[in-house]
Amino acid sequence: MVKIIIYTGLSLSFDDAKSILDSTDNIEVVYKRPIQRGDLNLALKENPDIIAIIDGVFHQNSAVGHKEILNVLNNGVEVFGASSMGALRASELDTLGMIGIGYCYKQYADGAIDSDDDVAVMLDSDSLEALSVPLISMNYVFSNALSENIITPSEKEELSRIAKATFYPKRNYADTLSKSSLSNDKKSDLINFIRESEDIKRQDAIELLNYIKTYINE
C-alpha cells in the first residue's frame, strides 16, 4: 500500500483530485488544505511514501520552508510539486530531489518567472475559492490569445503590464481589461476567449496527479 499526502484545494478541488486517484488500487490518499510552515513535520508522523505539493499559503501565513522539504526528502519520502507553491519550491529544489511537473514549474525552472507573485491568489479561507486570478494564468491566456490573433503583441504587452502592476488580491480580468486601451469589440472577443480557456494551474495539478498515478503503477 502506497500512502500519498496531497496539499491542494485551490488549484484543484478535493473532489476533482479524488476522481483521478481514488480509483487506483493499492494506494491510500490523504487530501489536505494548502500547505503552510510546519505542516510537513506533522505529515512525517503519518508515514507517507509520497507528498504532492500543489497549493500553499504565501502571505496569509508563513510559507513552507526549503529545509522542511529537504528534511522530508532525507527521510526517504518522495516529494512532487506543481501548479502553485509546489511549482515554485520544486524549481528551487529540483537538483536536490524534489520533482517538478507542468507548465508553471517549467516557467520557474527556466527563469521565465521568479516571484511568488506570479502564482499568488487571494482566497476564501473557508471555501478555498479563489478571489483573484494568478498572474501566470492571465499571461498564459494572453499568450494564447495572441497566438489566435485575438490580440496584437502590443496589446498583450499592455495587458500583462497592467496585470503585473496590480496587487495580487485585486488582480482579475475585468479590472485589467477596464484599464486597457483595447476597443470594446476587442475586449468582447477576449472575454469570450477567456471564458473558454482552461486555467493552467488546474491543468498542471491534473498533470501531476496523473503522473503520480502512472509512477506508482510502474
Show the helix and strand layout.
Blueprint (H helix, E strand, L loop, with lengths): L1 E6 L6 H8 L5 E6 L6 H6 L5 E4 L12 H9 L3 E5 L2 H9 L5 E3 L1 H7 L25 H13 L5 H13 L7 H7 L4 H13 L3 H17 L2
Parallel strand pairs: 1-2, 1-3, 3-4, 4-5
- Supply the CATH architecture of the largest domain: 3-Layer(aba) Sandwich
Number of strand segments = 5
Overall 3D form: elongated
Runs with pLDDT <50, length 5+? none
Average pLDDT score: 94
Number of helical elements: 10
Largest sheet: 5 strands, parallel
Beta-strand content bin: 5-15%
SS-based structural class? Answer: alpha/beta
CATH class of the largest domain: Alpha Beta
- Radius of gyration, CA atoms, in whole angstroms: 18 Å
- Major β-sheet strand ordering: 2-1-3-4-5
Question: End-to-end distance, in Å?
Answer: 14 Å
- Work out the count of structural domains: 2
